[in-house]
Amino acid sequence: MRSIWNSESPNIVKAQIVFIFIFTASLATSIFLNQVGYYGALFFFLVQWKQTGKNPFQKNGLEILLLWYLAAVLISAIFSTQHLEALHSFLKRAFLIPILYLIPAFITSKDRLNFFYKSVLYCTAIAALIYIGFAYKSYITNEMFRTLSGPEPFQHVITASQIFAFGFLMTLAFVIWGQRWQSRVINIFLSVVFFLALLGTYKRTGWLAAIVGGLIMLLLARKWILSLLIFVALIVFVAKDSNQNAIYIYSVRSNVASLSRKIVTEGKNGYPFVKDSTIYWSGYRKGLFGVNPSGKPFNALQTQDPLILVFKLNDSLYSSYALNTSSQILDFRQNAFIARGNKFYSPGDTRNCMPYRNRLCYYDVDSGLTIFDSFNPAKPIAQLPEYNNYLRSGMGDSLLLLYTPNDNAVVYKLDSSGLPVKQPMKLPINTRELLYAEVRQGVIAAVVGGNLDILYCDRDSVKLLASHPSKGIFWITEDKGKVVCLEPGTVLTYDIAMKSFNEISVSQPTLNRQYTACLSDSTLVVAWSPENKLFSIVDPYSSTNYSRLAFWRASIKIFKDYPIFGIGDIDVADYFVKYKRPTDKEVRGHFHNNFFHILATLGGFGFLAFVSLCFFLFYKTIKMFFAISKDATLAPYALGIVGVLVAFFVAGLSEWNFGRHAIISFIWMDIGLLFALYRLRTIISSNENSID
What we know:
By secondary structure, this protein is α+β, with helices and mostly antiparallel strands. The protein is built from 16 helices and 28 strands. The strands form six sheets. It has an eight-stranded mixed β-sheet, with no helix packed on it.
């Protein structure tokens, strides 16, 4: 910064530098500060233009396509049923586009380029280091694997994954093409930081974006052998866990669980249970499976929908629960399960389904509790929308637990009819550290920070009964007066009558973080379905894939009804609820894909504008890259920019990242930086000192 800041610099120039720094420093952490930096810098450039009469902004060739896109957003707002919201979206899109012109106006020398680029990377790397700390805590407590997501200390984790992917690619470019060894060492360190933070997000959107962007960069840099090796390694990595699903049966003796049998299965396995000495488990592909005492596997029940688990309502009555959140009552007769009646489901965004006193209780984050009578589930016997807005729930033994991890939790008593009383009870724990909890055997088992707390209800209050250090509870179940808590490599049980903990060590294969299990007498059954995060992209039984397909189907239906100008650039949740199937439960304000979202919101007119803008932008980027790459000092910058743009397009296939403020600000900045490089290439001669 010293090279672009001195006492003789005009105050207006100093103000520009300060606000540009605020803009670059907050890209990964604060939308508010990012806007302050951007609009502040833009304001002082406009003031400078007014004072000097010299326009600092130059055309870049995208003007016609940008105006076409903005016209599509504005026209769709006029025809939208929600004019104000659509107009607000138009203003947001329009006000961010000047970033394309602001960055080249600022970067007029190699010193400013150095300052700008390092500000972006170093400040984003600091955010990545902080994020790694949060991700490590999420990893060791198993929260990452229960939620299949990393933490959100700054913003949405899927946004963080893309920003860290962008940072990784920008630093990787200097590892590939850097001219000085000092620069390579620094950028190797930064690449590792971004890579670890990216892993910590546990989001395949960012992972895949970084992989494809990195491979394209290697190909552009003509690193043919390295590209081939990485491609082969990815294939091996994706394939190695694609068929390792199995049921492990352990015999428990003297607090040691020894493997007695392994049953290899097809596809993913759901929750196991034991009935009359027969072991059952849910098979996503074909229904309910079992293995009898003689060791013979069999198909206990075929289902049309992917089966996640089976609930026990009483000794002869069970209920299925499928991937699409539908349920069906099952009779157990003559050692066989028989489906009875039609399927049923709750009306809202289902987060949990719980059995209670011959009833099945759904908890929806938006529509609250929906309770079905298992003997007559044709329609709900109770709908309680007031019990909503919590992300997780648990029910049993006259208690209803509602909580949001790391936020808030309440407990309700259930009356004689099984309905919650009006007055909630608070938990005597720090709910800001509550990660996971279940109601089991009359108590509440809660993972709070690094401990497992056992809580019980005493009249009208909840009290702490016992506490035990935890390695990271993955799942909590029960077995005959015991609360069973499964940790990596250990089964931790709490005997309610004896008020004592006991640990059962598990022999190889060691329990990992991707399993479900049950403990019955002296038998431990583990259903193992290791999820390869990258392979799950094509897994039809992945819940996130299921939801995305639902969004895309609905967007096409909306386009058919609004083919010209769409429904407007608005939150699409209400339209999705109208056009989705009843079993499509997850509701979001966007369609998790740039192209499907534009198709529904802006119609054919806007879709053509958007596709044309993307195509021309990519074409122009590649063209400028080859021109800039002739300058060895500027080439790494350009290579990183191309990688980021490729990553953005790849991530946009499964995410509405064009509509996320942090992402699109980064992309407009990235493209503006490329325009600045294109102009600088004629200024910086080849004999100048390296600026990488």
